[in-house]
Amino acid sequence: MATLAPQPAFTHWSQQQPAHALDHIPGEDGWPIVGTTFALLADPIGYGDRMRAKYGPVYRNRGFGRRGVMLYGADANELVLFDRDKLFSSEQGWGPVLDQLFPRGLMLIDFDHHRADRRALSIAFKPEPMRHYADALNRGIAARVEQWSGQEMLFYPAIKQLTLDLAADSFMGLPLGPEADQINKAFVDMVAASIGVVRKPLPFTAMGRGVAGRKFLVEYFTAEALRRRSEGGGQDMFSQFARATREDGELLPVDQVVDHMIFLMMAAHDTITSSATSLVWQLAKHPEWQDKLRAEVLALTGGTARAITYEELGKLDLTEMAFKEALRLIPPVPSLPRRALREFTFHGFTIPAGTGVGISPASVHLMEEHWPDPRKFDPLRFTPENSAGRHKYAWVPFGGGAHMCLGLHFAYMQIKLLMAHLLTRYSIELEPGYAPEWQPWPIPKPKDGLKVTFKPL
Ligand code: HEM
Fold first, then answer.
1. What separation in Å is there between the alpha carbon of 169 and the centre of ligand 1?
2. Host H or E run for residue 405
3. Considering only CA atoms, which residue is closest to atom 9 of ligand 1?
4. How far is the CA of 336 from the centre of ligand 1 (A)?
5. Residue 393: CB partners within 8 Å, gap ≥ 6?
6. pLDDT tens digits, the chain, 457 residues: what are they?
7. CA–CA gap between residue 202 and residue 199 (Å, rounded)
8. Is 98 in the pocket of ligand 1 (CB under 6 A)?
9. How far is the CA of 166 from the centre of ligand 1 (A)?
10. Which residue among 252, 278, 405 is best mutated to probe the pocket of ligand 1, counting the most ligand atoms within 8 A of its Cβ?
11. Is the distance from the beta carbon of residue 106 to the nearest atom of ligand 1 less than 6 Å?
């Protein structure tokens, strides 16, 4: 579908295209200065649907002060994510949002450098370390879930805190306590800053706190990486990264280990929090699915509420399908940005080098042609029979191609273990008629925190 033309590559995301470069693409510039930003943020999916209905699957908009192009559809997802011709830079797509606080993370490097580092970091996701994380997750989840018995609670903040605490153990090998708390606080400040309106690190702004948080984390992780390297041992993710080598056998430089670690914490945190929340919400609305998932876990454990082992995770098919369906309905990363390094054509439109290009998993996940009755929660869409023949890029909550989520198996594991512990102890209940509103951006979450009750069985 895409054809290539030789063009000079844009080498940095801050380089601007001439203002008229996209005049030939149908679309809108929105209001002076703010462009289409507010319409987009208020209702990203509705806005996309309206634009697509008016202009078709390729349209121009102007968010955050820049003109860009959205490409809609599973074929657009494939073109951009699979990126057969190395047309699209992830570094230059994510750079304006993430570069100040999470520079040089995997999503902020491209092509050969990216491939080499990704390969080195993959060691932390092999079966041996995954087994270790499964034990840590089981311990942490069981202890916390016990405390959720009976009373109505806000699920989103509770799972956010639990995910942070679990990461201290699996990602950094730290027990809960003041050291883990200090790291978590610095990290939370960074994440808040990455979406702050003020982009300069002025005192008393989110960005000021975020940059200070980054400084603290860089110092802490640098000292720790050196220590863990010299002492060896440690099955946690950070210790694995500290010992990771490139293909030539050289250790990754310490500053790069640190950047990768900080980025990975960010990539893991709100995504797991958001998807665990949307799955719990769906299950609360569909008690018949709670029963099915509970029966699946109990069949595996022989009727007791014991921990599921890493080896057993592959047998939780229904739980996996329910999670996939929750990710379809509310993908934690609703749209993905790239920048075209060379000119290409798509659906008859020539899109010049330097164009910011977006795709929208959230919208494609609701396209009737791939998902009949698209807003209905139906995990059975993901049985092998029902999946056969569906476009491979119609479901992309973890992205695809070279930058596909590195932690997706970790995410499946944490969610499956969480469900096993929750559903064998409780039924998940909502007040009748309760329907929380979701904030769609940047990572979806229920505005009121999601009120649920875990009623002991
Ligand atoms: C449900 C949970 C998660 C979702 C929905 C999710 C989604 C994504 C998506 C969509 C991307 C690709 C972005 C792009 O191509 O522009 C990505 C990349 C990434 N994710 Fe996740 N993620 C999740 C959990 C995690 C976890 C738990 C970890 C780590 C343990 C993690 C680590 C990463 C990393 C390192 C990348 C960058 C990969 C690369 O650029 O090569 N993610 N994730």
1. 19
2. none
3. 398
4. 11
5. 74, 75, 77, 78, 81, 82, 364, 400
6. 444 444 556 888 888 888 789 999 999 888 877 777 777 778 888 999 999 999 999 999 988 778 999 999 999 999 999 999 999 999 999 998 888 889 999 999 999 999 999 999 999 999 999 999 999 999 999 999 999 999 899 999 999 999 999 999 999 999 888 988 999 899 889 988 877 777 788 888 889 999 999 999 999 999 999 999 998 888 999 999 999 999 999 999 999 999 999 999 999 999 999 999 999 999 999 999 999 999 999 999 999 878 999 999 999 999 999 999 999 999 999 999 999 999 999 999 999 999 999 999 999 999 999 999 999 999 999 999 999 999 999 999 999 999 999 999 999 999 999 999 999 999 999 999 999 999 988 899 999 999 999 999 9
7. 9
8. no
9. 17
10. 405
11. yes
Q: Distance, CA 134 to ligand 1 centroid (Å)?
A: 19
Exposure letters 269-291 (e unless 16+ CB within 10 A, then b): bbbbbbbbbbbbbbbbebeebbe
- How are beta strands 66-71 and 356-359 bridged, if at all? parallel
Pocket test of ligand 1: the residue of 271, 279, 323 to mutate, having most ligand atoms within 8 Å of its CB, is 271
- Reduced to 3 states, what is the DSSP secondary structure of residue 310? helix
| Closest residue by Cα to residue 409 from 321, 313, 309, 266 | 313
What is the CA(301)–ligand 1 centre distance, in A?
30
Is the pTM higher than 0.85? The answer reads: yes
Residues 6+ apart with CB under 8 A from 205: 193, 196, 198
The ligand 1 atom nearest the CA atom of 93: 16
